[in-house]
Please model this.
Amino acid sequence: MNHFKGRHFQKDIILVAVGYYFRFSLSYRDIVELLRDRGITVHHTTVMRWVHHYGPIFKALWRRHQTAHAKSWRIDETYIRVKGRWAYLYRAIDSNGLTMDFELRKHRDYTASYHFLKRLLTTNGRPDRLVTDQYRATLKAVKHLIKQDYFSKSAHQCSKYRNNLIEQDHRFIKRHRVRSASFQSIRTASATLSGVEIVHAIRKRTRRELSLIGFSVVDELEALLAA
Model:
């Protein structure tokens, strides 16, 4: 599928704009300035539309080509401000620190926890260990999924110490939002965070593979589109 058909700018320009936005803590106007220095004139609202359009596309492509993960998982959620209110970004990584899945929800409750965990288990199979915090809604979702035989009771652990790995991993997502404008809707927040999470996930995988070439966000997004 040609995801760039009908666009007024070339594919390379769009990938540089969205790739840099997802990778670094830059505003839309920062991206406009970087492009202007290279002789390309684009409005910041155009960059914004690209970000909102391509974030979900990269997420769908990344999920389609997911590779196997370690069987020890860490599950947690972090706070994201959307139009003056807190929303909750549910995230899952394996014991190697590689991203498994993520989802932005309006509420931090049983329904959000249950649907996120069920999707994770359906996609990745049964874990040998599933580490969560002691939040009541999460524990209720875990108990329900154990009853439905998605995984065994012995695999579940509540441990703040073991969840330090994902707590540290939240920092990239939180730091990325420092320079950017606050989100105005769940839809745009979800679209933007999808791109940020995917680039972060790819970079972690590349660093783990000890690539001699180094990380290039544009090259990695090109490879994702071609896969």
